Amino acid sequence: MSSFIIYPAIDIRGGKCVRLVQGDYNQETVYNDSPLQVARSWEEQGGKFIHLVDLDGAKAGHPVNETIIAEIASSVSVPVQVGGGLRRLEDVERLLSLGVSRVIIGTAAIEDREFTETVLGRYGDKVAIGIDARNGYVATRGWLETSEVQAEVLAKELAAKGAETFIFTDISRDGMMQGPNVEAIVALAKASGRTVIASGGVTRTDDLLALSKHSGDGVGGAIVGKALYTGSIDLAKALEQIG
């Protein structure tokens, strides 16, 4: 059985740790003024990998909160993955040089295939492809637009180009505390033959247990955000249960 990793999420906007509902910038809750403090606390509770999203970067199309990201990467001893506005090779290179272990390519995977394939060719397993889907179709630009590309088709194509890891979000479940779309996540893992990290909708430890049962199918972990901040999942306890 392959390992299953819980990724505590830190969404950074305006230098603070926030959460949005379904990616809506008008529905924001600030949970902490210091993302660094939050990252340290997830590490102290046993988190083995931290997931950072530069929300300002996602909107701007290039990293914005780099100083904070660099600070987090150098202050925790666990690996850090970062997404949000990565559409140029120099931005990817800069983040990796700041100590980030894995970068996440989202919008560009649809809009700039040449860039995506170059990054995959050069950095391989240091790259995760973020696939955010609405009704099975990939959404881009911070979820503001929906493409005509099916999530499973995109995953297959990019797996053939060297993608090892996908982060799959079912937008309808994100921040809604309704549980993840296990069926769609497993289907994507099987279709691509690669590791898929679930994102969006994880509400209770039971959701994590349900996903971890599919680690043999390629479900390699889950990103948990709101449920950790509201206390509906206790990270240390969840890690203990999943083992």
Describe the protein in words.
This protein is an alpha/beta fold and 243 residues long. The protein is built from 11 helices and 12 strands. It has helices at 35-44, 55-60, 66-75, 89-97, 107-111, 113-123, 151-160, 182-192, 205-212, 226-230, 235-242, and strands spanning 5-13, 16-21, 24-32, 50-54, 80-83, 102-105, 127-134, 137-140, 145-150, 165-170, 195-199, 219-224. Strands 1-4-5-6-7-10-11-12 form an 8-stranded parallel β-barrel, surrounded by 7 helices. A hairpin with a 2-residue loop joins strand 7 (127-134) and strand 8 (137-140). Helix 1 (35-44) runs parallel beside helix 3 (66-75). The radius of gyration is 16 Å and the shape is globular. The two termini are 12 Å apart. 46% of the residues are buried.
Distance separating the two termini? 12 Å
Sheet having the most strands: 8 strands, parallel, barrel
Radius of gyration: 16 Å
Number of helices: 11
SS class: alpha/beta
Shape: globular
β-strand amount: 25-35%
Strand order of the largest sheet: 1-4-5-6-7-10-11-12
The total count of strands amounts to 12
pLDDT averaged residue by residue: 92
Amount of helix: 25-40%
Q: Note the run of SSEs as H and E.
A: EEEHEHHEHEHHEEEHEHEHEHH
Low-confidence stretches: none
